[in-house]
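Sanity check. The docking grid for iron/sulfur cluster depends on where the pocket ends up, so I'm generating a full predicted complex first rather than guessing from homology. Inputs follow.
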Amino acid sequence: MREIKLGKFVLGGNNPIRVQSMCNTDTRDVLATIKQIQQLEKIGCEINRIAVPDMDACRKIAKIKAEITNPLVADIHFDHKLALEAIKQGIDKIRINPGNIGDAEKVKDIVKACKDRKIPIRIGVNAGSLKAIKNADTSSWSSEKYADIMVQEAIEEINILEQLNFKQVLVSLKADDLNRTVLACKKFAKQMPEIPQHIGLTEAGSFIAGSVKSAIAMSELLRSKIGATIRVSLTESPILQVRTAYEILKTLGLREYGPNIISCPTCGRCEVDVASVVKELEDRIYNDPELLKKSTGKKIAVMGCIVNGPGEAKESDFGIAGGKSKGIFFEAGKQTKKLSQKEWISTIINKIKE
Ligand code: SF4
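Predicted complex below; grid placement will be based on this.
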């Protein structure tokens, strides 16, 4: 598989799978966009994309770039002038479909500019905007047929760039439907294994529904070794999209990110508020880069009672099993002290910091 250089990262091959998201601010609002990207970088978002709908937004790229650390991607549709200006402004990658530019000379100009600045292009094929569906009755189309057409349109786009000897290309094949997405990515990987894929479901939906759908789809792809970078597209803040993406990678053992918190669902035996402890603990950890770093890879148990609590807490690096408004602290398999509930969070945080 080709390796694609994107700012300080290399995508594809055996390189780590990178997490990305997209700002939902108005790109023309430079301060709001910078603020959101800085928040995203703080929680570990490695690649950030911004929409570039017009020249006004495009001319803000250099200002945004000056205040952020990680690679910035411009999402551009149809207008080659926006692509050229974004490249001039210092963008690190563009997402554009050359087939939509409509003029071979304009595509050549974009490719030349990308080659000069050594930046890659992502071709993005979405099931909802396939050229083949424009005047077609798609009601009887199977997932297989959708996937075949997605792959065909992706290859057509790639061929435009290949003919110009441009190789720094990633591709995404996305649908809001699990089967179409997974089939398309797998078929593409078989036909063009050398091209790294950006994977994800598009328009996946609300937080819970979209996270579940995305996790199932990405798990299948990632276990098949498909995916150089992932984006979880939820109707939610990009912060939660990044958290979800990392949880998927962490669960599959592909990246480390924050602790593995083992907490019980609670039941009628529980006499402590486990849910608020876990929520506060996560809020503290994921809003503090130092805590996030120090807690990474640690298994921390927060259990409601002594029925399963001590067992789980013992299996963890450290943890607490609840009792009546109190808790027993375990570390390395040993019970070390009794705590009142108000000491739970501070004890765990201090232990992470040690
Ligand atoms: S650990 Fe205790 S409180 Fe939690 S679910 Fe199990 S039995 Fe219920």
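Relevant for the grid: The chain is about 40% helix and 20% strand.
Also worth noting: The chain has two domains: 4-251, 260-353.
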